[in-house]
Write a structure and sequence with these properties.
17% strand
Length: 71
């Protein structure tokens, strides 16, 4: 029916993809800020971001608070 078709069209228009963001101590060690700017632009475009926080110290774990400082 027409109502369902309209809803489906809206959902397709707002689905701008998904990005996987791996959170570790090296995430924002980019002096130019390219990654930060890229993430902000994705958020502005309503792209969903799935964040995975490293828990192994040998692989770059740091506290979530340390990561937030860079944002």
């Amino acid at each position: 029916d027409a109502d369902n078709d309209a809803d489906n069209d809206t959902n397709e228009d707002t689905n701008n993809g998904v990005m996987l963001l791996y959170l570790n101590k090296n995430l924002f060690n980019d002096a130019t800020g390219k990654l930060k700017n890229f993430v902000v632009s994705l958020l502005d475009e309503n792209v969903k971001i799935i964040m995975i926080h490293e828990q192994d110290v040998e692989k770059g774990h740091c506290s979530f608070e340390e990561i937030i400082v860079y944002i």
